[in-house]
Write a structure and sequence with these properties.
About 20% of the residues lie in helices and about 30% in strands. It has helices spanning about 55-60, 120, 125-135, 140-155; strands at about 10-15, 15-20, 25-30, 35-40, 45, 65-70, 75, 85-90, 100-105, 110-115, 160-165. The strands form four sheets. A four-stranded antiparallel β-sheet has the order 5-4-10-11. Strands 2-3-9 form a three-stranded antiparallel β-sheet, with no helix packed on it. The longest helix has 14 residues, at about 140-155. It has four helices and eleven strands; from the N terminus they run βββββαβββββαααβ. The termini are far apart. It is α+β, with helices and mostly antiparallel strands. The chain has one domain (about 10-165): PPM-type phosphatase domain (Phosphatase 2c, domain 1).
Length: about 170
């Protein structure tokens, strides 16, 4: 993509995706701080890893970058990016990874739903709070809208994308 469109901007993105195989095996892959959470026996279980600069400092430094931790701020790659893995971010590409972490889980009768959301939701709401909100609403699209609305009510200043998937059973 960079080769075909060298005039692309400096922006980047994170991603989380999931696939359900034979209705029983869930696979989740993520890059960055978008997150997947399932509800199993009414408990929130995080199915992805938030890629934070401090946890991958060695990899960033090995690629010639650095992680800054200014007082009152969060760790940033080269003083700019708050994630250690991302797509794009042309000016930081040499220092970042874009390979996903992959997790899997067995889906059984106790697993009720999956939440896939960007960091805007997770900055203002815990995994369990999100699960508790969703379990009150049967319709997945409505549940996702309610999560996004609640994030806005909590003064989220970041992007908010959210999908809720209910499992059969």
């Amino acid at each position: 993509m960079r080769r075909e469109s060298p005039d692309l901007g400096r922006g980047g993105s994170t991603a989380v995706t999931a696939i359900l195989i034979d209705e029983h095996k869930l696979w989740v892959a993520n890059v960055g701080d978008s997150r997947a959470v399932i509800s199993k026996s009414r408990q929130a279980i995080q199915m992805s890893i938030d890629h934070e600069p401090n946890t991958e400092r060695g990899s960033i430094e090995k690629r010639g970058g650095f992680v800054s931790n200014l007082p009152g701020d969060i760790a940033r790659v080269k003083g700019q990016l708050v994630v250690s893995r991302a797509f794009g971010d042309k000016n930081l590409k040499l220092h970042l990874r874009s390979d996903p972490d992959i997790q899997n889980a067995d889906i059984d009768l106790d697993t009720k739903f999956l939440i896939l959301a960007s960091d805007g939701l997770w900055k203002v709401m815990s995994n369990q709070e999100a699960v508790d909100m969703v379990k009150k609403t049967k319709e997945p699209q409505r549940a996702a809208q309610q999560l996004a609305k609640e994030a806005l009510n909590r003064d989220c200043k970041d992007d908010i994308s959210c999908i809720v998937v209910r499992f059969k059973g």
